[in-house]
Amino acid sequence: MSHIPMIPCNVAGPLGVLHLPRLWLKVSLEARGKLAAGYPGIGKGYDSMVVAALGLNADAVKKFVAEKHPTYQQFEAWVKAQPGVKLDRNNVHRLNTAILGYHHTEELSKEIRAATGYKEDGSVTSAACELNALDDWQAFHAAELK
User: Fold this and answer.
1) Domain ranges of the chain
2) How far is CA 26 from CA 93, 116, 119, 141, in A?
3) Is the pLDDT of residue 146 over 90?
4) Is 73 exposed, middle or buried (0-12, 13-18, 19+ CB in 10 A)?
5) Structure pTM?
6) Alpha carbon distance 7, 23 (integer Å)
7) How confident is the model at residue 123 (pLDDT cuts 50, 70, 90)?
8) Which residues pair with 35 in a beta bridge?
9) What percentage of the chain reaches a pLDDT higher than 70?
């Protein structure tokens, strides 16, 4: 059985890093062969932004999660223990601001709005956090609730 990662991009754990809980969930599901099709464990968007901004190594993240099957608390503890990790307030603030300020292209935004049943009336912007959540909820509904 595969799972759609339902933790939104704009959620943070105790470290205060947006998207880190979703990243943990996606990598965890992928490591167990349970991540829904179309969802990468560590993709090119927010996943890579978080890994790079914190100074983590994507392969090391995947290896730790695959081998240890950590809880979220254990994952955050591992992140904090990584040499050179950048968890200072200024860096986390810059990353979080970048995450919240990221917008999809207008073409992708229109595609997601159409797929999720929203009109082009300005009620849903191109903010990636919002659109990604709508896309997840639509996929979850189609997979689990229909």
Assistant:
1) 1-102, 103-146
2) 23, 22, 30, 18
3) no
4) exposed
5) 0.95
6) 9
7) very high
8) 3
9) 100
Question: Which one-letter amino acid corresponds to residue 42?
Answer: I
In the numeric block, which tokens belong to residue 37?
Answer: 């099709």
Q: Which residue has the tokens 């912007």?
A: 125
Q: State pLDDT tens for residues 84-119.
A: 999 999 999 999 999 999 999 999 999 999 999 999
Tell me the C-alpha distance between 33 and 69, whole Å: 13
Q: d(Cα 79, Cα 53) in Å, to the nearest integer?
A: 12
DSSP 12: B
- The mean pLDDT value for 124-128 works out to 96
Tally of residues, the chain: 146
Closest CA to 18 of 27, 26, 28, 8: 8
What Cα–Cα distance (Å) separates residue 81 from each residue in 10, 13, 58, 85?
Answer: 24, 16, 15, 8
